Amino acid sequence: MLKSNWLSVALIIIVTAIAPIFWGSTYIVTTELLPPDRPFIAAFLRLLPAGVILVLISRHLPKRSEWLHISIMAILNFAVFHVLLFTAAYRLPGGLAAVVGAVQPLIMMLLIWYVDNRKPAHLALVASIFGVLGMAALLLSPTSTWDLIGIIAATAGAVLMTFGVFLARRWRTDMPLLAFTGWQLLIAGILLAPFAAFLDPDLPTLTAKNLLGYGYLSLFGTTLAYVLWFNGIAKLSPVAVSSLGLLSPITAVIIGWAILGQSITGIALVGLITVLGSVLTVQWALAPKFNPNKVSIDH
User: Which of 97, 122, 140, 123 is nearest to 271 (CA)?
Assistant: First the structure.
């Protein structure tokens, strides 16, 4: 039975990890396939179609008592976060844009300690610190290019995402998973519509490459990724989920190396390996504490 539980937890971890891997591809898709300097339009076109798809599939209306929480999470997890995400993606190299997210597990530990008075597991804490050090090694690579606004956007996005994960687990109801995800996406898309219309320059005629980029981000980087992500939030430790988010910068760096010819050598390579080891250690340290059968993927 114990072996079976471990296998179930491992499967949930692997499935949840697919989400940040998709997100890690956001940066190359944004810089190589999308029209430049339109963060609001990019976020709007990513979120609204995904929300419509999931809401139509789920055909579930939130209860009156759930609307406030859903709206707050829509703002934290999607509306503001994605504007910050695309701002960082436009202004920073792919690996550097996501590298600041290494602080998420530590912020989550502090948040849980402060709100729930639960001290972090020592091994998970040490591993998360090494994750930050590993990201610093990547950040300090000779090829990194600093941009103050981009760094601020990436940092603010990491903080918002941490609070979003925390609240998504705390406010989780018996709402079906697709509806729980879809309504957040739909509300966020609607909130972003006026900003996309008035703050971003008019879109040029979209090319096939642009449409491919927007379609990929909406269907895979949002619809599929966030269903897997919220399922993981419901079943795993918030710290473990935040740690999995570090796979996004790892993916971004590997894609930059494989497709754009960006260098991963010396201290940057050591940093990447350290971050990966940090993620694996946090999962190993926290997985035994959670019952994989606690929440079904259908709820």
Answer: 140
Quote the distance between the C-alpha of residue 37 and its chain's center. 21
pLDDT digits (tens, 9 = 90+) for 8-19: 888 999 999 999
Q: How far apart are CA 83 and CA 274, in angstroms?
A: 29
| Domain range list for the chain | 2-289
Q: What is the mean pLDDT of residues 99-127?
A: 84
Q: Is the pLDDT of residue 265 over 50?
A: yes
Maximum separation of any 2 CA atoms in the chain, in Å: 58
Contact by Cβ (8 Å): 131, 283: no
Question: What size, in residues, is the chain?
Answer: 299
CA dihedral 288, 4, 173, 189 (to 10 degrees): 90
Q: Please give the Cα distance from 243 to 63 (Å, whole number).
A: 32
Hey, what long-range contacts does 259-266 have (CB within 8 A, 24 or more apart)? 259/28, 260/28, 260/94, 262/93, 262/94, 262/95, 262/143, 263/141, 263/142, 263/143, 266/141
Please check the confidence at residue 290 and state whether its pLDDT lies above 60. no
The pLDDT mean for the chain works out to: 84
**Tens of pLDDT, residues 54-77:** 999 999 999 999 999 999 999 988
The answer to whether 276 and 248 have CB atoms below 8 angstroms apart is no
Write down the pTM of the prediction.
Answer: 0.83
Rounded CA separation 166/180 (Å):
15
Q: Identity (one letter) of the amino acid at 179?
A: A
**Residue of 10, 9, 41, 6 whose CA lies nearest to 202:** 41
- Give pLDDT, residue 296: 36
